[in-house]
Amino acid sequence: MRRTSTVLAALALVAAATACSDSGGGGGSANTPGVTGTEIVVGTHMPLTGPAAAGYSKIAPASKAYFDYVNANGGVHGRKITYKIMDDTYNPATTQQVVRELVLQDKVFAILNGLGTPTHTGVLDFLKTNRVPDLFVASGSRSWNQPDKYPGTFGFNVDYTVEGKILATHVKQTQAGKKVCFLGQDDDFGRDALAGIEKILGPVAAKQSYVTSNPNVGPQMGALKQAGCQVVMLATVPGFTALSLGTAAKIGFKPQFVVSQVGADLTTLTKQLGPAAPLTEGLISDNYLPLSTDDANPWIQLFKKVNAQYNGNAEFDNNIVYGMSVAYLFVQTLQAAGKDLTRDGLIAAVEKGGFQGPGMAPLRFSKTDHSGYGGMRLSRVQGGKQAYFGTVYETDDGDGAVQPYTAAPAAPPSNGIPAAP
């Protein structure tokens, strides 16, 4: 038994040493997990099923479609991108299982665009320990912007506090004197959004929360109606936005709804509401990417072409725009990291910044800022269509002013693929 234990201990030491030497820090492409001379393997966790699947299940397939388009045109520095998509059902325990599988079994180079505040929070330390780049998290939590604590993690979405400040500024300007209330997810999504709102408006008149495991917001809507709310600001995923609109209508509650962009895609809401889709009329939201209905936008033209060729011509919506925008940025970072691809080199390329893509607001990546996009433009549903109005605004997650951002967005390259710098 002692001999067996000794052998096992020796094997464990060898395995640990091998893991350390293969971490892909700065030892060159040959020693980097998930990278060969012809392939780059990355992975993600997404709610392909479960309470957040509505709309969100379309994001990763759209990213994969863009990668397939890039692969068909020669890849990045001669390598093709393989994207492993794991369903975590928006369950934090499942997220931990699938991310461990991606890292320890599939040996992915990086995790890309893992979705969800409660889900992704639980894998931050694991990814840090294993030195896996954690790029462009699909959530606006401020947790991703901690370069000292999590040097390999970067956001993508505008953080929820920045968004809350921008939406609340619009409410302050257009709904003065009205009773403003709040319903949000019972996690950092809801709390960060409320923090931004209250930086501008002060304490809201009433606030409620929900958990995704309970698809019933009847008590919350009833309480907001009882409180006399005239404006209800929502930090909700799409399924709960639809539930909120439908439930409010059933009890004769008709406030002005102002909704975080993560739960406001009109195509998704229309599908969720069915015959009750007209309840979206007048809904106020915001975004930082071109809207899927803007056929004159060159990015939408590019993404529609990719969607038709590589994504089975799926129903085109803002989730597909989002997924392809993330994929475009990832290809930019791979180009910037160079042919000798390492994990440290990838992180350094993101921190160097300077990226431009479909977004109308600035990307703020630097050594001290891992937060992603920094501004939004307001949108409204009118006549059954979602359209922008006004200018783009930017701000910070502190006490900085909300101010216009006037730089023109970039145009896509002629072949739709970012070139190496």
Kindly describe this structure.
The protein is globular. With 421 residues, the chain is an alpha/beta fold. Strand 12 and strand 13 (403-405) form a beta hairpin. The model is unreliable at 1-22 (pLDDT under 50). The strands form three sheets. A five-stranded parallel beta sheet has the order 2-1-3-4-5, with helices on both faces. Strands 7-6-8-9 form a four-stranded parallel beta sheet, sandwiched between helices. Helix 3 crosses helix 13 (318-337), helix 10 crosses helix 11 and helix 13 (318-337) packs across helix 14. The longest helix is centred in the first third of the chain and has 20 residues, at 2-21. The chain contains 14 helices and 13 strands. It has helices at residues 2-21, 53-56, 59-72, 92-105, 117-121, 124-129, 160-174, 188-201, 218-226, 238-250, 266-273, 298-310, 318-337, 343-352, and strands at 39-46, 80-87, 110-112, 134-137, 153-155, 180-185, 206-210, 231-235, 256-259, 284-287, 375-382, 385-394, 403-405. The protein has a domain at 29-158 and 295-374: Rossmann fold (3-Layer(aba) Sandwich), CATH 3.40.50.2300.
